[in-house]
Amino acid sequence: MPDSNIVLDYEIRNSRVTITHCNRDATGEVIIPEMIEGFPVKSIDLYAFYKCTQISNFILPDSITYIGSNAFYGCNGITELVIPDNVTGSVFSAASYCENLEDVYIGEKLSGLGSRAFFQCPKIANIYISASNASMRSVNGVVYSKDETKLIKLPHARSGSFEIPESVTNFDYNSFSDCALVSEVVIGPNLTNIPDSPFNNCHSLNQITVHPDNPNYASIDGVLFNKSLSKLIRYPLNRQGHYNVPHGVTDLRSAFSSCAKLTSITLPEGITEISGFASCKLLSSIDIPEGVTTIGSYTFIECTNLESITLPNSLTQIRGVAFVGCEKLKSIHIPKNVSFIDTVVFGHNYDLMEITVDPDNTFYTAIDNVLFNTDQTELLACPVTKSGEYIIPESVKTIRNYAFYGCKDIIHISLPENLELVENSAFFGCSSLQRLEIPKLTVIEENVVDACSSLISITVDPENPYYASLDGVLFDKSLETLHRYPPGKSGVYKIPSSTITIDDYAFSYAKNLMTITIGESVEKVNSTAFYRCSKLERVIFAKLINYHNGSLVFANNSGNLLILYPASIPNFPVSAFAKTTWESTMRPMTPYEEWAFLQEESDAYPTSELLPSANVDHDLSNNFSEYVFETNLFEPDSTSGFTIQPTSTIGAGKLIVDFNLSEATTAYDFELQVSNSLRGPWETVSAFIPQGPDMGIVRVSGPDASSVHLEALGGGIFHIAESIAQSDEAFFARLAVSQN
User: Using an 8 Å Cβ cutoff, are 135 and 113 in contact?
Assistant: First the structure.
């Protein structure tokens, strides 16, 4: 039997049960039943068992046909996993980051594994396939196609030398990925198709050997080439020091990516495109030869020790993200023939101080080390070492994507009056930027101020036809769509009553936001609206809303997040949000929480401080006030001012509150109302009108033999008590007080 502390949440739709969530402190063996409430269990939702680290084993029923992505993410307690015969699909990504998973048994109907199978499961030693599976088979724990012509997956824990069988003609990019202990791969004579950048994350790989009879591939000194030696396909990741690329090689593609021990390289003439040096973390310098026309996307990303690079005059194109993460790169010179520079070429270049352009270049120019197009209508890149205030030239109409990426020391950017467009993520990571003023003609794309952790205010020129600002928050002109909450703005925020839609990434990277209240007016919350709000502790929904991709709305937030919703709402889509709130808690509001929320939301119910010994003339100055308490709790509540005391009569309770009327100069109406819901309707149980502190005892009978009495006690304090029958269902009462 499963351990008693295991709690499985589930949904029933179309007479089918989906397991949606399990408590993270679950321990021992989880046995999922075939039937729940008379319906078959068919699915396990994505992230259903997220980080249930103390579960030791899963027993899954044959009724299951679908297991969602990352369903067993971080289940470090399991050492084996059995996938039932009826689970279908060509991709299996349910088990990832399972650090101790060793053996996997796959049933007969799963037709493939996909690119993310067993991601970050380093101890996988064997993957066994049912003999009845029509698409795959396993040989010695290695997965092949049924006819053994394709190698599908080598288990990650395999070490030493691995020889690809002669029957194999092809394998995928991920067939060897994350096999960190493999030191040699031997390629047989019949292999005809090797993907670009094979052997990803095989960090121990020193040698690639190719059978001499292979008609398509060859190896020289353990380096993999095509047969004609014109293309270098893969340099072993664990090779150290310098490498001379042989003459005649014209294609490098991604041959050197993640070669973390490569310190320097000499490139031959004849190469026209450079790419594939990503994460060569010891590479300190490189001279690119004449003849090269293109630096490809991601070419030098995360080359953290690259200090200098020489670009040839033949260069015409620099593709996206080419130098992002080159932390020690100090300067870069754009040659005269460069006619295309992609977005996000630079970023996280913490030592970059100088961007210069050849004066004969007719496409680009640099002013004060900031890169522009030649007529200065577009700003492309600002070096991250720029600090203080930066005034953008008045000629600029467009700020390009990621133009100020990571400029952490800029505290203010002055935007020109006639600026028309700020592209996506233009100020990403400007962590010292404190305020942003949007001019009258400017349009702002998504994510412009992501990770601007000091930004507390976004203001808008009143003449701007697209946007408005309310309390430093960016809205559309009608205030119906909340576009952007400043990431540095802190504390508690209540969505204004005019708001209908919360936009994509509206609160992303709001690291100081702790509580958000989403009121009755909001109809839709878009995907990733609250992405990476690292201190967000509480979200309160007033009602059921429309959401676009709810699984991402609260992605990558704090593990302490509490999401509250009204208990009166049936079928609130807990699982839709829980998929990426992962470590968070979702529950209905308690009566006190919901009452406090309703009080805050509605101006019709102002609250007075109805606490013991409160001065009525001062505290009951509003026309209407109320307190709400739940009668079936029968426990003291220090926050409400009420106490609930049991009486000698079984099944009944007495509600007591004291008011100080000793200084009252006018009469007050007291009305006790009851309801089965905090949202009403409310029924008056009894009403009474005290005339002053010396009036003695007043008793007014109410329906259902209830009674209210008001007693004059010492010092003019009146004591109100209402005796009611205890109910098994939720039962609420409120005390309405108004001046007579």
Answer: no
